[in-house]
Amino acid sequence: MRWFGPAWHDRTYMFPRLARSTIVCAVLLSLPSLADAWTQDQPFGARVHKHEFSRVLLTAEGCTVTARLFFDAPAEAYPSETASRNYYRFHARIKLDNEHVLFSGVFHNQTPGAHVFDFQEDTTASGCWAKGESHPRAVDVEGCRGRGCTPAPFK
After folding, report:
1. DSSP string of 115-133, one letter each residue
2. Alpha helices in 36-69 (DSSP H)
3. Cα(99)–Cα(90) distance, rounded to whole angstroms?
4. What is the pLDDT of residue 29?
5. Residue 2 counted as domain residue
6. CA–CA separation, 113 vs 72, rounded Å?
7. Tell me, what's the pLDDT at 139?
8. What is the radius of gyration, based on Cα positions, of the chain?
9. The model's pTM
10. Residue 86 counted as domain residue
């Protein structure tokens, strides 16, 4: 004859199993979203109006790619007493190994020192290509000096 014990005894063993099952399910459900995320960090060198652009960091989550451009603005590029002369405008183009290209909008800088510029692109309309990992192949930066200037177009 088998003794089943009190009802509370069965419940105490059921809760740890339920908790483990819940945790395992949550981890398994999160794996597809982790597969769509990637990061690429690439050093490069570009000098525009004495500003040294040195690194690009690409991160993707789902269909959105975020690019971070790192650059240093030297103090000697900002000596003018005319405030509009201490204003630089830039734009960047990042060519990727999958033949896609990221274009930043025009961004500006008006102080010396280390800076980071971030921009994003949603690739949903173009087939959500950001889900596949990409590597930067080339980074181009164009710039100009003065508040009303327009950076040269890319060649």
Report:
1. EEEEEEEE-GGGT-GGGS-
2. none
3. 23
4. 44
5. no
6. 5
7. 97
8. 26
9. 0.75
10. yes
Tell me how long the chain is.
Answer: 155
Angle of CA points 52, 54, 58, to nearest 5°:
135
Distance CA 63, CA 38 (A): 11
* CATH number of residue 131's parent domain: 2.60.40
Q: Residue type for 74, please?
A: P
- Tell the residue number behind the tokens 């459900």, with chain if given: 29
Range of the domain at 104: 38-145
CA angle (74, 79, 83) in 5-degree steps: 110
pLDDT digits (tens, 9 = 90+) for 14-50: 556 655 655 544 444 444 444 579 999 999 999 999 9
* Integer Cα distance of 48 and 46 in angstroms: 7
Q: Quick one: what percent of the chain has pLDDT higher than 70?
A: 77
What one-character-per-residue DSSP string does 95-118 give?
EETTS-EEE---EEE-S-EEEEEE
